[in-house]
Design goal:
alpha+beta; Rieske Iron-sulfur Protein; seven-stranded antiparallel β-sheet; binds FE2/S2 (inorganic) cluster; binds fe (ii) ion
């Protein structure tokens, strides 16, 4: 029986994982994948990746950051200053934080609640609902100002499962439901993110290519070696089930307790207490299921160099189970993750980065069992190089 804290894992995944544990096998791709080392250092490649991201829906906020009409947050996304604003009708909109007069920022605060956004330079103001130009001081001293042309520039912004996404390409033919697809929807829904709270929210800027940070969080083999005295003891390495959901994908891995249960044939429980998972939300986010909370990672490449990124890590907990005890446990989980990430993962990724810069030749190899990493790099190659 699952406890009410637990999130069920698909029965076919559970049985496949148990089969792997009994036979000492894991899901395997047909072939290894090779990615040029230069892709981790090359400025032109980095520009192409950023241009690609600007064509895709990107995760920019969680609904709990803007629960009420008028709530807003300002974010810089790939160099674009955005205001994400909760509308009176409950929807969300994203505006470029740029005045249509002569380019000032119309909102200076990181977050707040406003009915209008006003530029401090010459006082032009804009409606939070729809971004229309509201008031122009000394308007008679301007020529006629075309209202429709003078709204805040808007980007498609949509919320699904409590995740707020912006599409900088304004592609009207693609909804967020299309982008996720039913399989990703089905994986996210049980976590009830729309009823969750952010318990941990941290950002780190590091001299590491963004893809190495993604790789490090997706990788299934390294915990046994790099975290041998920590998380490496709790999870089975090189045992996993990978599901491809279009460009996205999900790795399911076993905690060591599940191996014992699989081996002795005791009652099998496939919930999130025994099975860890990492859902990669292409291109730069992932959702890592822990027993009670869920971790979101979003990794942003720096605009001016291939060798730097900023990772934002957030822990979300369903509001109905969040009590003092769980909050304490979640903070403890963060301490463990922080220690592993800052002392073990990121120093290793930094060395890889330095090595790649010193020797940007040849390629890195993603083995047949490294399906989740390989899937991300295959998708990037498809989108950037038209690879098969
Ligand atoms: S630049 Fe915003 S009011 Fe002039
Ligand atoms: Fe790690």
């Amino acid at each position: 029986m699952n406890s009410n804290l637990d999130i069920e894992v698909d029965a076919d995944v559970v049985s496949q994982l148990i089969e792997h544990l009994r036979r000492d096998t894991t899901d395997l791709a047909a072939d290894d994948l090779f990615v040029p080392v230069s892709h981790f250092v090359d400025a032109q490649r980095a520009r192409a990746e950023i241009a690609l991201m600007k064509r895709l829906p990107l995760l920019v906020a969680h609904c709990s950051e803007l629960p009420s009409p008028g709530d807003f947050v300002t974010r810089e996304i790939l160099g674009l200053p955005l205001i994400i604003s909760r509308q009176s009708d409950g929807g969300v909109r994203a505006y470029l934080n740029m005045c249509r007069h002569r380019g000032g920022r119309v909102e200076q605060d990181a977050a707040g609640n406003k009915r209008v956004f006003m530029c401090r330079y010459h006082g032009w103001s804009y409606e939070r609902d729809g971004g229309g130009l509201r008031h122009v001081p000394y308007e008679t001293s301007f020529g006629s100002i075309e209202r429709e042309q003078s709204r805040l520039i808007a980007f498609r912004c949509e919320e699904r499962h409590g995740l707020v996404y912006v599409d900088l390409a304004n592609d009207a033919t693609r909804t967020l439901a299309d982008w996720f697809g039913p399989q990703v929807d089905a994986q996210i829904a049980p976590w009830r993110l729309q009823d969750s709270r952010i318990v941990i929210d941290k950002s780190f800027t590091m001299d590491i290519n963004w893809k190495l940070v993604m790789d490090g969080a997706i990788d299934i083999i390294h915990p046994r070696f790099l975290h041998q005295n920590g998380v490496g003891k709790l999870i089975e390495t090189n045992v996993g089930v990978f599901r491809e959901y279009g460009r996205h994908g999900k790795h399911f891995g076993a905690r060591t307790k599940l191996r014992t249960m699989a081996k002795d044939g005791s009652a099998l429980d496939g919930g999130s207490r025994y099975i860890g998972s990492n859902l990669v939300l292409y291109p730069n986010s992932m959702m890592i299921g822990a027993p009670e909370h869920v971790e979101f990672w979003t990794v942003w490449p720096a605009l001016d160099r291939a060798t730097r990124c900023t990772v934002q890590i957030r822990f979300l907990v369903r509001s109905d189970i969040l009590d003092e005890q769980i909050e304490k446990r979640v903070h403890k989980s963060w301490e463990i993750l922080e220690q592993a990430a800052t002392q073990e993962d990121w120093p290793m990724e930094r060395w890889i980065q330095q090595n790649a810069q010193a020797w940007p030749q040849g390629s890195f190899r993603y083995g047949r069992s490294e399906l989740a990493c390989a899937h991300l790099h295959r998708q990037l190659a498809r989108d950037l190089d038209g690879a098969a």
